[in-house]
């Protein structure tokens, strides 16, 4: 009769004060006229029973102890009827026929009416009364079932506010829970023996949720479970849900138990609970926006994030002599005297895979092979922001050979005397993440750089969220830093100090900026007014030797996702797409890359792009005859290598509106090489209605050779660019 | 002329108060922000930390409430924090330069300036924001939200604005007087702290303004009609009106479940929640112990129970016998409670 959750929800002062709700009710709550649950009206009980008032008895205690047995009612008839009428219809909807029959078999109408005279009107359905109001009042449905006894001996049922008879029929009797103190349960005709009961209950539960169980999903997701379809269904219904296994892609067991702590505490099968209660209560099968919420849970203000890498303190900084000698040795051993490049990026391109790292690696190789010394700097501490003032140590390498930790002071002193050794000197900035921007113009000045070149690989000059993903979940379009959106963004506070520092650096440096696509330059110029000496576009790669492909389409269509399977690259949307078409014979879904993934309905095809095998992805796409690549970046790409790889391999590309360079690429092509979808809804509908097949049949796809430019080397030496 | 804005809280809510104060500073840098403090600083905490953020801090002891210990003792933490609002409102209205006074709950943050409020105060003595502006459709929404409002009050008293005019002063004095005697969390008897009283304002006083813009006082109880979204100019909207302030009533798992129940369509809502949780955590001083409240204990540190507060509240003889019920030791009210525990 006491509902702790309801009590705390109804009386927020009790909740806020942190008092035990039952203790509160039993001591002062009842004196204040508060109710222990919707099934007991304290005021009504006291009004109706002056003897209780006179004796100053706790009304609930009195009701449970003697009042109930004496036939005293816990609610006024008006309230009872109101509760009864709304709940009766929902009851009919949620119970299966078998269950309703089993419940009715345990209900004795004559007993009920005579035991609780005056509680049920003559024209009222006595069974519906019990199922809605009666059990709340502790009434028994028949002599064989003692409601109060069942609730008392099974506190899990009470705390979840479950109808005790329903619980008994659904699972209690199979679990051997007695229905009455004298174990009259075994005399009930529908309960022949425990084993049969267990089976019967399982079957009735399976009947209720049959449409919610996806055996193919369960088999794929749980390779440790073997057996027939029926075995798997039984596994979920008995053990699987307790182990947090989902019955289908449409029901999230862990989420349901998180959102419904009452169900979790009572250890009830969440799928069964959902089916029985969804008609009348707002209970959800899946967490709304689950993927974004998972990202949000991990999202922290960027300035508070710990460095994800740091050079060990034992790795001491080299001195001027060492650095100078290293450069001299390189000139002597390899004769690299044409010029000196100082290049700054955010990490060690020699060991970390990635698009920017490939660019740096390509240009380093090109410069070195043409007699240039390529001195690369990356921060000794990998921060998610600009480095704080006066913390600006670098890790330095020369032509791929590691030198070690170098302080800015040492670096400046050494660079200041290099003019005599190198006829040409240029500074290249690929990224400022983890870098103290104030030191960059000083480096340019000390080395007497002829040119300072700044690459717009991403949008870090506009916001510390370099992909412009607000709170890591949605593209923000770089609003004013004073906007309300920046106020609630994990990057907003940092952006306030980030922008003036970037601005000051550009003013002092006035670099030539190079964008890897027209889209990027146009967007950047719209969003910033930073001081530059020149701005131009140089794409990292282009496709040549194109040949038109036949429009032969596989059956089923082979759909692929290329690249890193992460949220902001659209992996979650691709997962959702694949899950949605799980049993659809029109499509087969693949993941092409080197990351492990175990999504249901997505087959992995291994492909690793290395420096030695830059065409690995194209080969994988071609060899497996992938028809369509879904390239669903959630933010505008500045230059998307995977899109170029997909197109060079001759697949049809589907990308969203707002995907930057990819959208531009598809729209600017005169050939029908891909399709730009307005949003996720259109993406789903393309597959749902089969339009993707007709797009493919009418496409004019071409395959070709992807030629990669050696980044800044191609920019500085134009003839090399083509 | 000046707008005075105040909130009322204890130290356990200081993180929230700071977040509110910063959001007010951002959108109304000209407002005077005051904190009515129903608490005493914990050991090791320096109240001077906030002198730039709060223009004035008024401890409950400075409000001029007669028989203060006896009066405070009759209230739990929520009741006390709300019972002082009337007195503080009148105090600020007495300031010579006060054009108007705005009360805002500590668990609120502003996202845009409250321009409609300032406009309404030119023509009306009071501005109130209802919990809901539209009827509910779902049965559970009716129970949670509509019946919730009928029980706890039509208007949410997380916000109230009063113009310093005769009728505004009359409202403030009436409210102050009621709260000094009847600020009780007792919905069964028609009382819910300071809030339920305000259902009477439109009937008792002339020309009250009910602010119906959906951007004000957005919270779990009205989210079903006010989806949150953010546009590419960085504006945050509630039901297509710029979000003025959000009332973060609960930020724990239970609160998130309620927000999810009514606001699940908009992911931006959870961005707000992420930001707010982080902001209050960063702003809550480490020196304040969890669940700290100076007036929550007797002098010897023992927690005061609700039955002890209630018996004291309801028995005049005890109030006379123990004018300072917080005292510990022989002959104290605490001692009396031990002896008479069976009566509690």
Please identify the structural class of chain A as seen in this structure.
alpha/beta
Q: Please, what is the average pLDDT of chain B?
A: 95
- Portion in helices of chain B: 25-40%
Q: Could you give a short account of the major beta sheet of chain B?
A: 7 strands, mixed
Q: According to CATH, what is the class of the largest domain in chain A?
A: Alpha Beta
Order of helices and strands of chain B: EHEEHHHEEHEHEHEEHEEEEEHHHHH
Number of domains of chain B: 2
Query: Count of helices of chain A?
Result: 35
Count of strand segments of chain B: 14
Number of domains of chain A: 4
Backbone CA Rg of chain B: 20 Å
Protein name (chain B): Glycosyl transferase
InterPro entries (chain B): Nucleotide-diphossugar_trans
Organism (chain B): Gluconobacter cerevisiae
How would you characterize this protein structure?
The complex is a heterodimer of chains A (722) and B (344). With 722 residues, chain A is an alpha/beta fold. Helix content of chain A is 43%, strand content 13%. An 8-stranded mixed β-sheet of chain A has the order 6-5-3-2-7-8-11-12, sandwiched between helices. Chain A has a 6-stranded parallel β-sheet with strand order 16-15-14-17-18-19, with helices on both faces. In chain A, strands 1-4 form a two-stranded antiparallel sheet. The N and C termini of chain A lie far apart (82 Å). Mean pLDDT of chain A is 88; it is low at 80-93 and 184-191. Chain B is of the alpha/beta class and 344 residues long. Chain B folds into 2 domains: 2-283, Alpha-Beta Complex (Spore Coat Polysaccharide Biosynthesis Protein SpsA, Chain A); 297-343, no CATH class. Chain B is 37% helix and 15% strand. Chain B has 13 helices and 14 strands. Chain B has helices spanning 14-27, 68-73, 77-83, 85-93, 115-121, 139-152, 166-182, 201-204, 253-263, 267-283, 306-314, 316-321, 333-339, and strands at residues 2-9, 32-37, 56-59, 98-104, 108-110, 126-128, 159-163, 185-186, 191-192, 209-210, 228-230, 236-238, 241-242, 245-247. In chain B, the strands form 4 sheets. Chain B has a 7-stranded mixed β-sheet, sandwiched between helices. The mean pLDDT of chain B is 95. Classes of the chains: A alpha/beta (722), B alpha/beta (344). The interface between A and B is large, with 51 and 44 residues.
